[in-house]
TrEMBL record:
Principal place of residence: secreted
Family: Belongs to the AB hydrolase superfamily. Lipase family.
Organism classification: Eukaryota, Metazoa, Ecdysozoa, Arthropoda, Hexapoda
Protein name from the UniProt record: Neutral lipase
Keyword set includes Phosphoprotein: no
Domain of life of the organism encoding this protein: Eukaryota
GO molecular function: lipase activity; serine hydrolase activity
A cellular component term, taken from the record's GO annotations: extracellular space
InterPro entries, per the entry: AB_hydrolase_fold, Lipase, Lipase_N, TAG_lipase
Coiled coil: none
Record-annotated Lipase domain positions: 65-289
Any Gene Ontology biological process: lipid catabolic process
Keywords: Secreted, Signal
CDD domains xref list: Pancreat_lipase_like
Length: 319
């Protein structure tokens, strides 16, 4: 497990919990200040300060990350991690790192909306290798992420029922394995266009048992020439935007592939994309699905549904 754990040392957290306000100490209570004072900034410029102003409890460290380290409880307890709010884990795909999408876009969508912990897993040490090597290592890294979440639970009491794992491409299979390591007890697993090459018949690919609710968004179906994603159902609920093969405004497979995380981030913000239940892949292809409606994506931790769904989107945000 040295490989996965070394990679997990690079996991960073963007925590949206409010900055704690300390209770005045005995020492501070001895000092009587007037309500309005002047206080200098870093350049020595004086500013008017109201000491009785209402604290901004929505202040968030959405830009500066904190590193959470496996088997280092202090790295967690000394951070702003709040076990009482949802924890979102985001995992990138091949040839990527914590600074590349989907990480910034999905992270911002969550932190702009609600009070959550966002943990970004940087597995670039392996993801930057050739595709075959990276794909082969996905299950072990996924199990390592699961072990880290088990450690997080033991240190803070953060419930698995309050965790949502989001992965893109190879990262979709990675979060599936992370959820599997925890016996499928995490609330949600979102597989964003799970990678197709080497995964169509791979027993380690994301599956419906990896979480209480597992959802997949297919945007670049693997049954077309050059398709980067799996074109078949792999989850409890599988969504096929625009048929799941090509996306409006896209001329390349890469654009189609990336549209999965773009659509997901938009649904976290807007919760506006609705699919219709399909009874066959032929209905998905011919856009003749007429079943019950079901919302794609979003941030609902108690969401649950089954089946295949087709929906049509616009070519530009919010789609």
């Amino acid at each position: 497990m040295k490989g996965p754990l070394a990679i997990l040392l690079l996991a960073t957290a963007y925590l949206a919990s409010a900055v704690p306000v300390e209770t005045p100490t005995e020492y501070s209570l001895k000092h009587d200040y007037p309500r309005f004072i002047k206080f200098p900034d870093g350049e020595g410029k004086m500013h008017d300060v109201d000491l009785e102003a209402e604290p901004d409890m929505k202040l968030r460290n959405t830009i500066v990350s904190q590193t959470l380290t496996m088997n280092n409880a202090a790295s967690i307890t000394s951070s702003n991690f709040n076990a009482n709010v949802p924890t979102i884990v985001i995992v990138h795909g091949w040839l990527s790192n914590r600074y590349t999408d989907p990480n910034p876009t999905v992270r911002k969508a969550y932190l702009d909306k609600s009070d959550v912990n966002v943990i970004v897993v940087d597995w670039s040490r392996l993801a930057l290798s050739d595709y075959a090597t990276a794909a082969l290592g996905v299950p072990a890294v996924g199990r390592g992420v699961g072990e880290f979440l088990r450690f997080l639970n033991s240190v803070t009491g953060a419930a698995y029922s309050n965790m949502h794992l989001v992965g893109f491409s190879l990262g979709a299979h990675l979060v599936g394995n992370a959820g599997r390591e925890l016996g499928g007890s995490v609330a949600r697993v979102s597989a964003l266009d799970p990678a197709g090459p080497m995964w169509n018949y791979n027993s380690n690919r994301v599956n419906p048992n990896d979480g209480v609710y597992v959802e997949a968004i297919h945007t670049d179906g693997g049954y077309t020439v050059g398709g980067l994603g799996i074109g078949s159902a792999v989850a409890n609920a599988d969504f096929f935007p625009n048929g799941g093969i090509s996306q409006p405004g896209c001329l390349t497979n890469l654009c189609n592939h990336n549209r999965a995380w773009e659509l997901f981030a938009s649904t976290v913000t807007n919760n506006h994309l609705v699919g219709q239940l399909c009874t066959s892949t032929l209905q998905i292809t011919w856009n003749t699905c007429r079943g019950t409606s079901f919302r794609m994506g979003n941030d609902d931790l108690r969401k649950f549904g089954t089946g295949m769904y087709r929906l049509d989107t616009d070519r530009r945000y919010p789609y």
